[in-house]
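Q: Hi! First time doing this. I have a protein sequence and I read that you can turn it into a structure. Is that right? Here it is:
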Amino acid sequence: MLRQIEIQKQKDQEAAEAKRARNAQMIAEVEVSNKVAQERKAEKLRQDREEDLKIVRYNADRIAKEEAEQAEQARLREEKELEIQRLREMQERAADRQGEIDALRAKRAFEEGERKARKEEREKAELQRKQAKELDLARRKQFMEREVMLAQQAKAERDEFLRVIQKQKEQEAEERELESKRHTALRAHANTIRT
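A: Yes, that's right. Below is the predicted 3D structure, encoded as structure tokens:
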């Protein structure tokens, strides 16, 4: 009988060690899962920062281009104004009717060019406003999609973590029940021996 009790004690110790090993393994699995999730989050944040940097660079390049174009337009306007002044002086110095007619024709041609240039500027400005609006909408859409994806990922990770914890609790409950049954059997056996 004592031999059987010793054997049972040894089995109990082995079962307890196996339980500790399983618990340690489950904790290690949870830690690995958390580490993988953190690495995914870090990679996603890095990609998002790269996308934001690309957008900032694009806007900076676009603004620089627009400023250069505006400067060029200002220079052209100044040249045109100087040309208008020159034509006016020619008109004032003209000695005959033909000179006045030529100067008037030149002025009208220039004014037509000005009208066309202003029209082109308005069309270009409208196009730029439209492109800026489309870009802003695209960025908003991208931001919303990113927020939804991060929320879904966080929920999936939380569900997985809760599942692992629930599984561990169930195993621990089963082990406690088995342990209780073993102790009950041992006590009954000891009582039988004493009887």
